[in-house]
Amino acid sequence: MAEEIISLQKMQVAGWIYLLCLTLGSWIIISWSFAWAVFAGGLISILSFSVSHKDVAGFFESIGQPQDDEIDKKKVKKSKTGFIIKFWFRIGVIGIVLLVLIKSGRTNVFGLILGLSTVVFTVTITALRVAVRYLFRGRR
Q1: Which pTM value belongs to this model?
Q2: Which of 40, 84, 100, 124 is most buried (CB neighbours < 10 A)?
């Protein structure tokens, strides 16, 4: 049952829905330029989250296999190194994209921060839903 509640696919869909709501709300309440910054930040956040999931899943798959001989141990070590390199590369790319967006002067920094928080909102709301189900529907 917990797997039904916390599926990654549901979290990704929820993230896109939250981003859409944040963008539309920002457009209606504040301005189109602020809404664009929210959308840009949310897009960066959600795409990074998706890529991270694929990398983490591949990493755990590689270390979860039995390591009987020296060749398998070398493959796991190579997988760990690859995971770390991909992680830092992704962080660098995100940093460069954010730098370009901010330096262009066309992006509202506060909107960008709000958009970058989309995945945080998604994880927090999902955790709260799970906690409420656990507490109020009986502990199973």
Answers
A1: 0.75
A2: 40
Q: Which amino acid is it at 60?
A: F
Cα-based distances in Å from 52 to 10, 56, 60, 117, 122: 16, 6, 12, 16, 15
At 107-119, the pLDDT tens digits run 889 999 999 999 9
**Tokens, residue 104:** 């262009």
| Assigned token pair, 73 | 């141990």
Domain holding 22, by residue range, is 2-136
User: 41 near 49, Cβ under 8 Å?
Assistant: no
Closest CA to 36 of 86, 109, 107: 107
Which sign, positive or negative, has the C-alpha torsion 6, 7, 8, 11?
negative
Nearby residues of 138 by Cβ (< 8 Å), 6 or more positions away: none
| Dihedral sign from CA coordinates of 118, 87, 110, 32 | negative
3-state secondary structure of 31: coil
Return d(Cα 2, Cα 125) in angstroms, integer. 15
Number of domain units in the chain: 1
